[in-house]
């Protein structure tokens, strides 16, 4: 590593630590020629391969922007959005690949967003998964309800799919009866 002060071609690492978010390494270096110290930050690059085949650096801000649009008007704080974006980046980085498909970034967003806000999840999924019909929305809502019922112990053993289907049918009919 060249010294930024005297351009000496070598330097000695004095201290090395992970950054607060754990995505990079901060190194304090000292030049053997001028004895001055400087800091470098080293991070593994992560590249996103878009559908068109073009590549661009991964951007946590771009993930935040998409999720922020899905959460517009919802009771979700900026801190929760920032945490979600960090979770997405961490899950992608733990895969260990230097390049990741844009599709995989979207998949990484879906699970934490579903846990954060179901309405925002449906909004994001409708764009990401290209919902074309009301049936696409209904199917996604049915999956959310089934997962919620399974998570809360909504069925008492036996065949969970029949218990879920009967409650879904009752719920689907309620709004229609109220609109008269």
Automatic annotation (TrEMBL):
Residues 46-136 form the ATP-cone domain. GO terms for molecular function: ATP binding; DNA binding; zinc ion binding. It holds the Pfam family Zn_ribbon_NrdR. Residues 158-167 have a biased composition (Low complexity). A zinc finger (unnamed) spans 3-34. Keywords: ATP-binding, DNA-binding, Metal-binding, Nucleotide-binding, Repressor, Transcription, Transcription regulation, Zinc, Zinc-finger. It comes from the Bacteria. Binds 1 zinc ion. One of its GO terms (biological process) is negative regulation of DNA-templated transcription. Negatively regulates transcription of bacterial ribonucleotide reductase nrd genes and operons by binding to NrdR-boxes. This is Transcriptional repressor NrdR. The lineage of its organism: Bacteria, Bacillati, Actinomycetota, Actinomycetes, Kineosporiales.
């Amino acid at each position: 590593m060249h010294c930024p002060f005297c351009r000496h071609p070598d330097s000695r690492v004095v201290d090395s630590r992970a950054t607060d978010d754990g995505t990079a390494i901060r190194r304090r270096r000292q030049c053997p020629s001028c004895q001055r110290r400087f800091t470098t930050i080293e991070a593994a690059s992560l590249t996103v391969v878009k559908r068109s085949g073009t590549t661009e650096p991964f951007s946590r801000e771009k993930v935040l922007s998409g999720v922020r649009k899905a959460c517009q008007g919802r009771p979700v704080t900026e801190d929760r959005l920032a945490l979600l974006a960090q979770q997405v980046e961490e899950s992608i980085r733990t895969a260990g690949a230097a390049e990741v498909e844009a599709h995989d970034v979207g998949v990484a967003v879906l699970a934490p967003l579903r846990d954060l806000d179901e309405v925002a999840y449906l909004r994001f999924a409708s764009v990401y998964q290209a919902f074309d019909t009301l049936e696409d929305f209904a199917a996604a809502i049915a999956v959310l309800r089934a997962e919620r019922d399974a998570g809360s112990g909504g069925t008492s053993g036996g065949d969970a799919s029949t218990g879920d289907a009967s409650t879904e049918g009752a719920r689907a009919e309620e709004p229609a009866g109220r609109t008269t």
